[in-house]
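Tutorial, part two.
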Amino acid sequence: MSITTAQPARFRAARCSSAGCPPVTIPGIGSQALDTPAMASSSWLMGRAAASFPRTIYLISPGMASPRRPSLRVHLKPHHKLWLNWDGAFLMGPRYLRFLDAVDRTGTIRAAGSEVGWSYRTCLNRIREMERVLGAKVLATTRGGARRGGARLTPEARRLVKLFARWKREAVRLSDVAFRKILPR
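Running the prediction step on this input gives:
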């Protein structure tokens, strides 16, 4: 295997042999092989003309475990995006859960909205949409300003929050276990 300096300097390019090579690793793009001349025309990777490319080129980060096999256990981490639908309509996701928890904790829509980065109007629209999809009230509100007013979760919303939080914890736990199980050593 011959090693040449690549652009940018923190990566090396390796010519592969018939025995095989590691995958291409490009930050922000992922891993892939440059097997075709069209893919090899990315001459900016090497700072050379496309004709000087070998059949397959791989980039190797100096921080990887070895040029032949990077340590996937160190670099890969699953991410989860979970949400609930009700009869095909979006009901709630993680941010809604944080919002409803904040309403329960602070007692106001405005304070809860600022915790999750929503304006007061956005909060009202999201509450209205949840109530429309569910067909039930999500918040019990009282008028009166800072001294007498406030908002609290209805029993239905409280059950929904507990259900979603429990489901999310369990889904993430099981997904992480399954990911570690199938990940090569």
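Residues 3-75 form one domain. In part three we will examine how such features are distributed along the chain.
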